[in-house]
Amino acid sequence: MSALTHEYAETHRRSWGGGADRRTTQIGVLPGQRGSLKKPRPRSAAQQLTHLLFDRDDRERVHGGWRGLLAGFSYLPDLTPGERTAVSYDRLRLVNSTVDDPVALAHDARLLAGLHEWAGFVDGGLCTLASIHYNLFMGSLLDHEVYGRDLSAFTSMQRIGTFLCTELAHGNDVAALQTVAVFDPATGGFILNTPNPGARKFMPNTSLIGGPKSAVVAARLLVDGEDQGIFLFLTPLSDHDGHLPGVTVRQLPQRTGTPVDHCLTSFDHVWLPREAMLEADHGRLDEDGTLTSVLGNRRKRFLRSVNRVTMGKLCMSAGTLGMARAALTIAVRYAHHRHVGGPKSGQRIPVVRHRSHHGRLLHSLANAYAMTFLHRTVMDRFVAHEEAEREEVERLVAVAKGWITWQAREITTESRERCGAQGLFPANRISDLPGNVEGGITAEGDNLVIWVKAAAEMVFGHQVDPISSDSRPAAERDLSDLRFLRDLLASVERTWQARARTALRQGPSGDPVGRWNESSGAALEMVSAHAGRLAADAFLEAAGQATDPATRKLLTNLCWLFLLQQLRQHTGDLLAEERLTVEHVLGLHQTIDTVLAELAPHMMTLVDAFDLPDEFLAEVPIANVDYLDHYR
Description:
Structural class: alpha+beta
Largest sheet: 6 strands, mixed
Number of strands: 15
Helix content: 40-55%
Shape: globular
Radius of gyration: 26 Å
Distance between the termini: 36 Å
Low-confidence stretches: 1-39
Mean pLDDT: 91
């Protein structure tokens, strides 16, 4: 640890209030929580919303420790990119020092996603590094048989783990990657090689910053010249003296978002021992080089090898969730502190009084709640799914990841704009968030690409059912009926599916790309409507879980706003299909305005429920009523 990063790390330890003792606190339990016999006080509305937002009775285990730990991490925009990256590595080690069992963390999907949810808005670099080390690297090792391999160097972070899959010439078509691992019958090992410049591994964090590193490398296994498909190989990259022989690393220019040491990495005939290959039922190599597998083709073997990318999508979604909620909290608090001229001479009113201001933030708040509830629902499904449901759940995770991260981009951008010029200053901790969200949009599968794959599967392999059995005509239904609004979303989904099917059937024969081009636009609209409908279902379920009438009313109104804004862009289709009436369409704007007026007085409660730590908010000038004192 450098002197500079050691200084900041010590500051962070002191800011936790527990010194060395805090570093050994279990992740699921905060100091002072054991053995309390105090009678619990009634929950406020914000506390009840927090309970629903953050995994209910599992909240302290999944979120409590991360929230308390990361609250003490200060924002350090004045450091150079390299210095900020080094601090992120030091923080990763501090996080690791609080974890009783890093192996258990890599296995625990909820806890791992929780780490990303709280790290994302505090230190985007830490969020990225944690995702790579715990999920992609450690997770890949644990998902394969490890032959009694000693993992202590990785669990103690004597060595940082990274993941090398994407190549310079093969990003979204990573199944066509060209890095090779040639079976060496003389030694029983493998020769790892980068055959051309386009096969260099693109963007892994493989520099010497952060200390010695090892990688899980995706490479094409060649046995006697025959391509057996892509497998993963555990490969040491560097030690305390530098990169190992045969490993060439060139650091890439800075990208948007929090700095991480992204690099180009190549291998020049690097020998690896037999145990370097990660094996499981999807592929095992006998001593003579014979491959056995329970899967019938190379593509399926590859997808099983990189299965941790699915969990990575949940982690990326979680990270951007935290960013969106933090941006909204800052923007809403500032909107209450920032005063502008009122209608009377000399009068000053908070800018939040204006519908043009609070309306946009409330729409974003409705989306943020919907995103959070959707993530919880998808996580539940992911944790509980059986092997036979694998493909369906992987598609569900991909659809949710695309929708959540795209919504997070809109929310962080909107929130930054609502803070005006103050939002451009890094000290207010909101200007970096849109850039950090962009990383989540691209990582673990570019959003558009994974949605195209989902769309192709869903055109004929998907059915949408109504949630309500109410068969009354549209004229007898009302825009205040949330079940009616939800079923309208399902109608939109079915409409676009029908259009995609028709376009695919009528596309040019003998031209698969041409046929898909005719259908893809409608198919992607279907996926978008599907994601919105899934979020609405999760929102409705959460609102039904609220036990306090006032809290239920608040959450129901927010869900109502979400449903109305989801339907707004589809009124033409719904009117043409007679699922909405002219009166419905003409009254939609006024209905939305009515809901906004109902919700506007409760904006602080809605963001207080996001439970951002006081230590974090205290470091954000515009999040506090005395923000003008910052300039004295």
